[in-house]
Fold:
Amino acid sequence: MAIEFRNVRKTYPDGTTAVEDFSLTIPSRSTTVFVGSSGCGNTTLLRMINRMVDATSGQVLIDGEDVGAIEPVALRRRIGYVMQNSGLLPHRTVIDNVATVPVLTGTPKAKAREQSMALLDRVGLDRSLAKRYPGQLSGGQQQRVGVARGLAADPNILLMDEPFGAVDPIVRDELQRELLRLQRELGKTVVFVTHDIDEAFLLGTQVVILKRGGVVAQIGTPAEILARPKDDFVADFIGAKRGKRRLTVEQQGDGDDLLLVDSSGYPAGLISAPGGRLEPVLSGGSDPKSRSVSNKTDQAGDA
Amino acid sequence: MLFLDAIDWILDPEHWREVNFGPGIGEELVAHLWLTLLSVLAVAVVALPVGLYIGHTGRGRGVAVVLANVVRAVPTLGLLALLFIALPLGLGPAVFVFLLLGVPPLLAGAYAGLESVDRQTIDAARAMGFTEWQVLLRVELPLAAPLILGGLRSTVLQVIASVTLISNFGLNSLGDFILGGLASQDYPQVVAGSLLVTALALLVDGLLALVERAAAPRGVSRGDGRTTARSRRVRTAPTGAPIAEGN
Structure:
């Protein structure tokens, strides 16, 4: 399910231009992250895919098919959508929230609930939460339910609009790792919007850095962007200018571990070596990109 | 004592059959409720669709507020008198007057109810692939039900109280006892009539309050920090530990 933006433009009736002439191909079965500060049109671009926003001109194509020609309701039921603050229906139980789309498309309720139970397992929620109402869950649990709901109709495309923006850093970290795991298992075409460059680098196979007006500042893999920021804007955005990404080896840790510090002298992480303190931790873990660097932001390993 | 006399008057079984060779309490009560019911139904037919339309689309709110306020300013008795002079006596004009009177509260309840629903919830429902009708029927209406029913309660209360006035124009209502009592200076009967109207209004309002309570969506906070979920509220919920799935 490749998605293609062709010279897409969005002008709102009040004259503001959210996106001017945007073109991009999103490869299927991978994660593309739109990252940029607010007002960069990233949410607008995301919502054009399921026609929550219609482009003023240009086309959005899914596997070559113009979404403009697809009836919006049918289109949306085929595409998973996860938003900030979950957007769950407060008057429905967790299980009914997850089963929303299958029930809309005519799956018998009992069957939809049964499938939804399996989805709770998949997103790491205890089945005992099924009969709760969203208001009775923590923010992180609500987001998990949101993800389960997005996956319920087994869509090929999953749109995620800042899904982890409103949860605390520890829960966010957990949810990010869960998403990576899910993505490895399911291989959806994920389009993800965030303001957080670290999140973008962690989750994205392809990262699209946007400037105001939906102008692409740089497209590439996290490694490409970190290694060769195209201009000052990108360098500034990813924190390279502030020296956050330039790490030097300061001293050795336990064994042959190497301690990394950034340009302001702040310890950023460790490079583990055989016999070092991190060895048992890392070999036991299942970090998807199996980095040999561990640090507070989890991303500097790309540097 | 006037009040006790009035109670005695109401409790007199004779008065339930016939008062001063006219209809008794039973018949007047039925007439009063019947006119109320017809009027409220008429109000619902007008106010619900309009209110839901305004609340759902956000269009026409200004116009509705102005119209409702204008209507509110019209004196009921004057309007009734005008219509009964202009039109033949009957239920129709009466229902029309109470319709005008009863529309504002329900209309306001309907659009305020829909406006109170979290925009993000509605946006999410749309993004899931709810049609506009499904958004209205499955998301907005259930969540707005308490406010809509609150509006309905105000309407019903207004109409029950105002129907008393119809006795001035020869139709039956509990107001007959008040007017008749005033004419014959039978003050226990006047108070009895007032008590009956008041009791009826409170009783119906109480019943509607129960309905409103029952219609409150479960899982949604009533504002007192608790939710209306029937299930026991659990304070700490087990966060899903990542589970191993063959990897």
